[in-house]
Amino acid sequence: MNDSKNVIGVGIAKRVFQVCEVDKATGEMKSMQLQREKFLEYFANRSVCLIGMEACGSSQHWARKLIALGHTVKLLQARQVKAFVCGNKNDVADAKAIWLAVQQPGVKAVAIKSEAQQAVLAMHRMRQQLVKFRTAQINALRGLLTEYREVMPQGRHGIVKRLPEVLGQLADRLPALLIDTLREQFARIGKLDEEVAEIERRLRDWHRRDDVCQRIAEIPGVGMLTATAVVATMGDANAFKSGREFATWLGLVSRQTGTGGRVKLLGISKRGDTYVRTLLIHGARCVLANSKSPPEWTSNLARRRPLNVAVVALANKMARTLWALLAHERRYQCGYVSQPA
Question: Is 6-110 CATH 3.30.420.140?
Answer without folding.
Answer: yes
